[in-house]
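Contributing: when you submit paired examples, paste them exactly as shown. First protein:
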Amino acid sequence: MLVNIDREWTIREIAKETSISVGYTHAVVSTLLRLRYINRNEKHKLAVLNPATLLKRWAAFHQYDYINSFLEYYTFEKELDVFLTKIEKKIANEKYALTSLTGAWLVSPYVRPIDIHFYVENKNRAKELAKLLNIKPTAGVGNVRIVIPYDKGVFYGLKSIRGIKVVSNVQLFVDLFNYPARGEEAAQNLYNIMEKEWSQVLIGGSNVR
């Protein structure tokens, strides 16, 4: 709902979109309604009432470093843009999505990343993509971190920037919010962008803050 801020939903539509049972979706929606993060209009359609509050509440509990699994790799390529071009050319047709400071850098350059993080579906796909990118596994912390997500929902709403796949701004924000090494700064810069976008959708921006 945060990714599609201008859309109204039925419970069944949300369940179908997220591949979650109608019963569980109903339980979650009931909680969101009670907490006034979403509302239901006269046509019984659901929409986000206060996107900023909902997003920050989610982000506060989201621990990117702990809920995901990380595979450490190393590239000898020193230039970020050169490696990003390699991603564009070598794995264009693969399922992946950049996140963390690298993803934020592509959306709006603010904090320059020193490593590259991207989601893939599972460890087998990670190994295959590592071969395509010619990156090597390392016992320590690498400068390329392939992330196995806690939930495949991280791929929802991904976009292409310069031919490179990046998670949605919503996912980027929650991944960065509690992330060290200037993650909070990058998250705030990203939030400023989202706030402007929300203001164009929600009348006068009055529901955003």
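Second protein:
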Amino acid sequence: MSDDERLRLVALVAREPGLAMLRGLPLDLGPIRLCAIYTHRLLPRSEDPRRGERPEYPRYVELARELRVPLHTVDAPTDAERLAGLEPYRPFDILLSLSWRYRVPTHVLGWPRLAPINLHRGKLPDYAGAEPVRRALSAAEKSITLTAHVMTEEIDAGPILVERTHAVGGVGGPTRAGDVERIKHELWPLYPQVAIGAIERVTGPLRAQV
């Protein structure tokens, strides 16, 4: 498959979920061509007032080098409002977002030829917004729904493309924080599956394009 035939994808990703998703996509001479990775290098002030480097950032550097893909960092709202440097990658087909800290500018949502897609670790619209896993456990949910949807101006809104449920297992009051982190970790292998499913909803089966 030539580069001209491959789907052109730009990723807005962060934390361990972003790494897990990118490593699970068919990128190595597969049907998807990753044009650029955008991520966050610095910790938010809520986690570190001095804003030190995120522990997973060196692995983003390693992955970008391995894939021979440009890596960009965005760590301020003013930069996120512009997403400077993204326009030269146009035309691209898919904008794929996971664990991205900032609202994607409206004009950028219109850039992908096929769809801007976001992955959210909660059932929508029930658990839109922050901390969906914790909120679902507090509501005594028996499963977490990982949702892929088309991004719109409203956060965690837009047409749903794929839903994938994951049973939470046994949870308990005093260990609730530990349960939240355990479940987040258990979701990592599902991100590439849900991302591929969402992409196929807007492109057709990827295998048919190889």
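If you have annotations for the second protein, write them as plain sentences, like these:
The chain has seven helices and seven strands.
The chain has a mean pLDDT of 92.
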